[in-house]
């Protein structure tokens, strides 16, 4: 990065086709120089992308990288040694997969539920047929659980084997089920908590996701939870970070998720932008100040307003003008400058287990018998690995991110199923899996606003997603729906 004469580095925003944008230029209000944009188009786009970054003389590339492209960008980063990635590829290690979260937490002695990861089908089968239940099975790759749709509680070997025969998740990622009364998400900027809230499951349920009926509130988040999140953020050397922390019935705390990729209101992305501008050009920007536990007051505002509020600021405590008493700034969680490291902590040669250990494709010649008498004809026939699809795929010409708003009616599951079935290359099994897993309202939301989530379904990669979205635009036009180009 160019630091001569205190000059500011040239910033570029990293985007990927059909991936929801985390930042745009407005999050960096006040940056006096032009902010470039570069877009990765998937497939065999690496060389073109690298050439564009070099041609634009970008020195700092800002943006999250989705799980399926993480290893590709490990290679890209090595081809761009003079470019600083924010967040760093090491900070984004946990974004890629649940297994990476496990390795990260184990290295830094962070509490997590007891977890087993299997790359060999035989070992997974042996474990599942002899372990105690209940267990939690998760789809390993990806930064989050996407509303809980890819997290499963299994109560017996029969359920576990049936699940893996249907989903074919690879690797097999299995955790002990820990009954919990809630979980807490903590968002941090510069290792300082800037937002935290409880997510509580509906009565009698175990998933806390609001899309599954869970509730949320911002009050009285325990200090020990904040301290654990800060510890994880510092271990990751993350410029910004989020932790999901489970609260057991006995008030024990364990990390469920942690990543730089998370859902955040625009004003929080503004705060991250303020921090990054100060980090990159401290001679031009003041260190931002975020009031401790600000979320307890901001959380009282209706969420529909919070989604539109921008550029929220805080005055720093000082001597009182009326009594002369000192109101000290809360120094318990200070905003810290993250250090820039060029060396790799998590090199792919050592830690890309999905890529370095081939997924075994096994067609079982005879039924697999377990102690309860369950039989499966095929195990892991087409392993669901989540690795970026390679080959001559150019979808940039056919896929265009749009914000589609259905005005005429709310489609039913049957109507959505009919839509998918008319899309070329989408079969009945995949169509049914999408609609029954997400439900009607969530399927509509995903199609309209977050289509990349569909790639979490088996055999649905970038090319097929582009075909689906083309079909969705045509469907909306035919049904007299309205769609608009996505805007910053």
TrEMBL record:
<protein>
    <recommendedName>
        <fullName>ATP-grasp domain-containing protein</fullName>
    </recommendedName>
</protein>
<dbReference type="InterPro" id="IPR013815">
    <property type="entry name" value="ATP_grasp_subdomain_1"/>
</dbReference>
<keyword id="KW-0067">ATP-binding</keyword>
<dbReference type="InterPro" id="IPR013651">
    <property type="entry name" value="ATP-grasp_RimK-type"/>
</dbReference>
<feature type="domain" description="ATP-grasp">
    <location>
        <begin position="102"/>
        <end position="285"/>
    </location>
</feature>
<dbReference type="Pfam" id="PF08443">
    <property type="entry name" value="RimK"/>
</dbReference>
<keyword id="KW-0547">Nucleotide-binding</keyword>
<dbReference type="InterPro" id="IPR011761">
    <property type="entry name" value="ATP-grasp"/>
</dbReference>
<keyword id="KW-0464">Manganese</keyword>
């Amino acid at each position: 990065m160019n630091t001569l004469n205190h000059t500011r580095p040239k910033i570029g925003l990293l985007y990927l086709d059909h991936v929801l944008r985390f930042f745009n230029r407005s999050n960096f209000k006040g940056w006096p120089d032009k902010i470039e944009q570069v877009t990765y188009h998937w497939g065999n786009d690496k060389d073109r992308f690298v050439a564009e970054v070099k041609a634009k003389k970008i020195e700092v590339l800002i943006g999250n990288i989705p799980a399926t492209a993480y290893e590709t960008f490990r290679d890209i980063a090595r081809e761009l040694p003079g470019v600083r990635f924010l967040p760093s590829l090491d900070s984004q290690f946990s974004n890629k997969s649940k297994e990476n979260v496990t390795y990260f937490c184990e290295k830094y002695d962070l509490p997590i539920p007891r977890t087993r990861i299997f790359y060999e089908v035989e070992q997974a089968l042996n474990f599942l047929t002899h372990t105690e239940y209940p267990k939690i099975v998760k789809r390993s790759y990806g930064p989050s659980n996407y509303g809980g749709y890819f997290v499963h509680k299994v109560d017996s070997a029969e359920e576990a084997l049936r699940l893996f025969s249907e989903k074919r998740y690879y690797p097999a990622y299995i955790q002990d089920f820990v009954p919990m009364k809630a979980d807490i998400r903590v968002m941090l900027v510069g290792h300082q908590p800037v937002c935290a809230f409880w997510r509580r499951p509906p009565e009698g349920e175990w998933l806390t996701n609001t899309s599954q009926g869970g509730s949320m509130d911002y009050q009285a988040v325990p200090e020990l939870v904040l301290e654990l999140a800060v510890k994880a953020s510092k271990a990751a050397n993350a410029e910004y970070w989020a932790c999901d922390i489970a609260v057991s019935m006995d008030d024990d705390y364990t990390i469920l998720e942690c990543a730089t990729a998370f859902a955040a209101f625009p004003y929080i992305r503004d705060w991250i932008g303020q921090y990054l501008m100060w980090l990159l050009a401290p001679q031009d920007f003041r260190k931002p100040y975020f009031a401790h536990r600000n979320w307890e007051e901001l959380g009282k505002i209706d969420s529909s307003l919070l989604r539109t509020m921008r550029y929220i600021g805080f005055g720093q405590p000082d001597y009182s003008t009326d009594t002369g008493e000192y109101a000290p700034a809360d120094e318990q969680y200070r905003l810290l400058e993250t250090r820039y490291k060029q060396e790799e902590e998590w090199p792919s040669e050592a830690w890309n287990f999905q890529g370095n250990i081939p997924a075994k494709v096994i067609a079982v010649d005879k039924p697999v018998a377990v102690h309860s008498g369950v039989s499966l004809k095929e195990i892991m026939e087409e392993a669901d690995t989540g690795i970026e699809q390679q080959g001559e795929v150019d979808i940039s010409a056919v896929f265009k991110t749009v914000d589609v708003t259905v005005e005429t009616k709310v489609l039913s599951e049957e109507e959505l199923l009919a839509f998918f079935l008319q899309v070329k290359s989408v079969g009945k099994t995949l169509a049914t899996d999408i609609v029954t897993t997400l439900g009607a309202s969530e399927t509509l939301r995903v199609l309209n606003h977050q289509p990349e989530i569909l790639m979490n379904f088996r055999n649905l990669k970038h090319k097929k997603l582009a075909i689906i979205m083309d079909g969705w635009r045509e469907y909306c036009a035919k049904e007299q729906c309205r769609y608009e180009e996505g805007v910053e």
